[in-house]
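Entry:
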Amino acid sequence: MLTPRHQALLMTLAGMTVGVAVFGAVLAINGGNPFAAEPQVGVVTPVPSGPPSRTDSLQADGLRYAVQNFGTDNDPVSAEVPAGWKSSQDGTRPKFVDPTGVWQIRFDTRGSNQTPDQLVVSRERSIDERELKVMSRDDGLLVYTYVDQNRGPRMGLSRWISTDQGQSTAVEITVGGRPQDEAGLRAILQHATDTLKVPVSGNDNRPN
């Protein structure tokens, strides 16, 4: 039979055992540290994305087109250009630029008494760019590359279009981009040429 002293000692040991069990449960819940602060939930702040970078070449298959009207009231002109390209001006010399500013297409509808071939020669002589290289100058089309101080290597394709069997020039179309964009630039230039509509009425007072 246990004496009162032994009974008191057993009760003390039992209390300590329960305390250790509870302490162990606290350790398990708090990941091993009963004094750890409540876990923090991370907040991810979205980073605004800038304009899409055009590191790849211009793909003609991915382009969609929209009709643009320009020229003057007496001499209206229209053509299809890539959808989403914007021009800061209309009139006789609009220039449509893609959202990143890498590619562009420009029209000059003022006309000229010179033939397309004459204008090819004249434009070639007037280009003042670093490392200018003329790739071709046939059939009213001038293709060239150069190096822009800010944008690096560039390519231009300029076409002069006649509506009177080459005796004069009605419209100039120029597309610009980078050398790796040549296939896409040629496709845009050809599409603009194919969809070009110029005045055919007696009110057409071009060329100037």
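The radius of gyration is 37 Å.
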